[in-house]
Specification:
- The chain is α+β, with helices and mostly antiparallel strands and 203 residues long.
- It has two domains: 88 residues, Arc Repressor Mutant, subunit A (Orthogonal Bundle), CATH 1.10.10; 82 residues, no CATH class.
- Helix content is 50%, strand content 12%.
- The protein is built from eight helices and six strands, in the order αααβααββαββαβα.
- A three-stranded antiparallel sheet has the order 1-3-2.
- β4 and β5 form a beta hairpin.
- α2 packs antiparallel against α3, α4 packs across α5 and α6 runs antiparallel to α8.
- It is elongated, with a radius of gyration of 24 Å.
- The structure holds zinc ion.
- The site of zinc ion has 8 residues, from loops.
């Protein structure tokens, strides 16, 4: 476990939100289980999911116990715990084992920092979607009915309204559905962000 100390800790959340609330405002188990693996780029990793599920109660659990609970080797659990730790999602505590020379490591989810990291990610996605929405609402589009290749009006004009791949005549495209999908996703994420950060919209 010596490797841990050399791993740089991910940026710690500031304590602007009270520790008393533990940053758990609106962060339910389902959201954590869904979003932490996405942040780690480890969706579908059963060990990561197992660790999160077993630490959700807030109780510190040793790596040996986690391995037993998940049903994998302790080294496998340690590898993923290191990954979670390097990303600032878990904390650990060394505890001396009575009558033994060694220490055991007890792990907890770092709820404050997970909350912070999830909020940062959602904000980033909202920003990207807003840029895309801006692009969609400020252009007219054309498409190739044969292969679906998409062009802005300016591009279509430049290419004489012919597909650059197959030469087919381009057709005007109604992007209303795309715009609606973007708006509804932005609104869904904004609501999620509000519920996680504990802010309520003044109505
Ligand atoms: Zn084409």
């Amino acid at each position: 476990m010596e490797k841990l100390s050399s791993k740089r800790r991910a940026k710690k959340a500031s304590s602007e939100r009270s520790a008393e609330k533990g940053g758990q405002v609106g962060l339910d188990a389902k959201t954590i289980e869904e979003l932490v693996p996405i942040l780690l780029h480890s969706r579908g990793n059963p060990v990561i999911s197992g660790i999160i599920k077993n630490l959700e109660s807030g109780e510190a659990v040793s790596d040996d116990d986690l391995a037993a609970l998940i049903g994998v080797k302790v080294n496998t659990v340690r590898t993923e715990l290191n990954e979670l730790y390097a990303n600032g999602m878990v904390t650990f505590e060394k505890r001396k084992i009575p009558n033994q020379k060694w220490y055991a490591y007890f792990w907890k989810l770092d709820m404050n920092n997970i909350n912070y990291l999830i909020q940062q990610r959602i904000k980033k996605v909202i920003e990207i979607l807003n840029k895309r929405l801006q692009y969609e609402t400020s252009h007219s589009f054309f498409y190739c009915p044969k292969d679906g290749k998409r062009y802005t009006f300016e591009e279509a004009l430049e290419y004489g309204f012919r597909c650059t791949d197959c030469g087919t005549q381009l057709q005007a495209q109604d992007n209303k559905e795309i715009v609606e999908r973007l708006r509804s996703e932005i609104s869904r994420l904004t609501q999620l962000l509000e519920s996680i950060s504990g802010q309520r919209k003044e109505s």
